[in-house]
Design brief:
The structure holds two protein chains of two kinds. Chain A is 41% helix and 26% strand. In chain A, strands 2-1-3-4 form a four-stranded mixed beta sheet, sandwiched between helices. Chain B has six helices and 18 strands. In chain B, the strands form four sheets. In chain B, strands 1, 2, 3, 4, 5, 6, 17 and 18 form an eight-stranded mixed beta sheet that branches. In chain B, helix 1 runs parallel beside helix 2 and helix 4 runs parallel beside helix 5. Chain B is elongated and about 60 Å long. Classes of the chains: A alpha+beta, B alpha/beta.
Chain lengths: 81, 326
């Protein structure tokens, strides 16, 4: 099963929508979704590891796939890969 | 093809308000947008919207979106790419589909103005940001440059001073356009270095953003700001572009009349005109920051969204004059 990690910050106005986007998609297609704040210890590790410089950032199966909110088709494509 | 009474293009406060009024008038309505909230999302504090002493932009937008959804408005997240007229109806083309409608409300707002220098596109999302509120906290203990001279740039620099090790605030003039109080606050921050009389020329880096090349500027004999040809380079990890907003004319330029700043020219009733003509384009309305209405304020955009929706209702039902709404 695909593992999707969404990196957000509390100050990012687009992050709640990005979260909603992935949650809605999860109703259509099964994948594991984790939303991680960039400033949690886990988030800080990911920020360093992937050199994240913008949010919302989506990591799928250990690879940064999207910065920003992707189009639904792009997201579905990435989940099918 | 399914036919809508109204397609609202844009999910900022103008489009959302149009959605509320369209739904209350029982119109078959669709809202097409790339995001919800637009520029309002970027405002940390809004203190001039009636009903709120102080509210974060994203909270106001979230509440408005919940209100819109409570009326059952259909919303799709797509990119509007163009319009055309077909047998007295309109087709709205997006990156995904074409949809038919009796009326259109153009409320796509404005988008952040880009620097338009080499290297900018390469590093968008990888160091170049147009949203300091979103991304500045990711530059903890790093060096950033904020470009601009207005309130947004000053606020971004202040925000940067909380997180970054060093902030360069780069402005092409010798004085800032923002509020004096903000300027003073910025000047008081020890980790903010103000770089006046300079414009970005290039953003450099291989894998990572590495530096920004600036050109010194001066006023010419006519008082215009011009480059002197002398350049210098600043090592930075991130660049925050805060040089205002502009209309993207691409989807609308062949559909409605625009002014010299690419804003949609409207009547006091939010009606639009055919391109290069003084003839009103029937059934096509515009609202919010994309229009040539002076004073870009949330409350004005919301008011125009309301007017545009009621005018669309009028147009469909063949009524004229003010509409009574309860």
């Amino acid at each position: 099963m695909k593992e999707v990690i969404l990196i957000t910050t509390q100050t990012c106005p687009f992050c709640p929508l990005a979260k909603k986007f992935w949650e809605e998609l999860k109703k259509e297609i099964d994948f594991k979704l984790e939303v991680i704040d960039a400033f949690s210890p886990e988030g800080q590790e990911l920020v360093k590891k992937f050199d994240i410089r913008a949010v919302p950032t989506t990591i799928i199966d250990g690879e940064v796939k999207f910065v920003g909110i992707p189009k639904k088709e792009e997201a579905l494509e990435a989940l099918k890969e | 093809m399914e036919e809508y009474d109204v397609i609202i293009c844009g999910g900022g406060i103008a489009g959302l308000t149009a959605g509320i009024y369209a739904m209350r008038r029982k119109m078959k309505a669709l809202l097409i947008t790339k995001d919800i909230g637009g520029q309002a999302n970027l405002a940390e504090k809004i203190e001039n919207y009636p009903g709120f002493i102080s509210v974060a932009g994203r909270d106001l937008i979230q509440k408005t979106y919940e209100q819109v959804k409570s009326f059952g408005l259909e919303v799709v997240f797509e990119d509007v790419q163009g319009f055309r007229e077909e047998n007295g109806k309109y087709i709205v083309k997006t990156n995904i589909a074409e949809r038919k409608t009796k009326t259109v409300i153009i409320a796509m707002g404005k988008t952040p103005r880009k620097l338009r220098v080499p290297g900018e596109d390469k590093f968008i999302g990888k160091g170049v940001s147009y949203c300091a509120t979103c991304d500045m906290p990711l530059f903890k203990d790093k060096t950033v440059a904020v470009i601009g001279g207005g309130n947004s740039a000053l606020e971004a620099a202040l925000l940067g001073s909380k997180f970054a090790k060093k902030v360069y605030l780069v402005h092409r003039r010798g004085e800032f356009r923002g509020f004096e109080e903000l300027v003073e606050k910025v000047k008081s921050k020890k980790n903010v270095e103000i770089v006046l009389w300079a414009i970005p020329k290039e953003i450099k880096g291989e894998e990572k953003l590495d530096s920004i090349v600036l050109e010194k500027t001066k006023r010419d004999e006519e008082g215009k700001i011009v480059g002197t040809g002398e350049t210098f380079e600043l090592k930075v990890d991130g660049i925050f572009v805060e040089i205002g907003f502009e209309v993207d004319p691409t989807p609308i330029k062949d559909f409605v009349k625009l002014d010299e700043r690419n804003q949609v020219i409207i009547t006091s009733n939010c009606e639009t005109f055919y391109p290069n003509s003084d003839k009103i384009r029937p059934g096509v309305f515009a609202a919010g920051d994309i229009t040539n209405t002076p004073f870009k304020q949330l409350v004005i955009a919301a008011g125009e969204g309301c007017k545009a929706a009621l005018q669309a209702y009028n147009y469909i039902h063949g009524t004229s004059g003010p509409v009574m709404v309860h």
